[in-house]
Every structure is written in structure tokens, then in C-alpha cells.
Amino acid sequence: MSAVEEKLAELGLRLPEVVPPLAAYQPAVQSGVYIYTAGQLPMVEGKLPVTGKVGAEVTPEEAKELARTCALNALAAVKSVAGDLDRIARVVKVVGFVASATDFTGQPAVLNGASELLGEVLGDKGVHARSAVGVAVLPLDAPVEVEIQVELTGA
Question: Which tens digit of pLDDT belongs to each residue from 26-35?
Fold first, then answer.
């Protein structure tokens, strides 16, 4: 077990199976020393635990937890390409999308769920740049979607 996966276990978490693509794309691709993930929904065992807009059907607190799940799914996608999460030199960028009620402006707090998880699991390697974007709707009526870019050690 990698050191990253041991840290996940210490936190009471496990790396899920890679979420299969919903359309014509790959969950993650490598270019040079970078891995880019596709947008990851908060799927748990093939299902969305909650659907709807944040600030309406979904509370910001629920959405923050869903963003954590998205980050776990993104790490699984990274591992599927890198082979070992210990190869992560750093998380470079996180982009998060929040399906938002028209008056909801707390997207950054929702995306903290993903950012905080990456920091807990990867320490300083998990510190990253980030965008938090409010959108009208996401695939399958998901409340949150997260993609990450990581740099690997070596090539």
C-alpha cells in the first residue's frame, strides 16, 4: 500500500474504483509529467447520493462533503494512470463546478471540501491553485463536479 493510501486509511477513507466515463472521454490522461482528470462527480458505488442545486435541494454542508467524494474519485483516476499515488509531486490546479441556486454564492466554501481533503491526504503536495465556478446544471443533476491536475515526480 502506498504512503498516500495509508494516509487515506488513517483518515478512515479508501480509494474507490475509478468512475467509468459517462460519455466519450477518459477519466484521466497523462501529458509529460502532468495528469489531468476529467470532471469527477461525487459517485459512490456507481450512484449519486444526492442530486439538485446547492442552496436549494442540497445544503452547502452536504455539497462540501460531496466535493470531498469528488476529490477521492479524482485521486482514483490519477492512480489509474500513474500506477502509484506516491508519484504525485504536487497538485497543481483544482477546478470545481457547483450547480447553484440562482442566489447561491458560496461556491468557494463548497470546493473547500475537495481542497481540504487533498491537503489532509497529501500535506504540502496537496496545496494548489483553484477555481470555484457556479453553474446552472451538471451531468446527472449532480450538485458538484471536480477536476484536478497533478504533477508527477520523474517522467
Answer: 999 999 999 9
34: three-class secondary structure by DSSP: strand
d(CA 102, CA 145): 18
Q: How far is CA 70 from the centre of its chain?
A: 3
> How much is the average pLDDT of 140-146?
98
Alpha helix segments (H runs only) across the chain? 3-10, 60-82, 107-122
Rounded distance between C-alpha atoms, residue 13 and residue 33, angstroms: 27
Question: In what order do the strands lie in the sheet containing 144-152?
Answer: 28-31, 34-37, 144-152, 88-99, 129-135
b/e per residue 102-121 (b: at least 16 CB within 10 A): eebebbebbbbbbbebbbbb
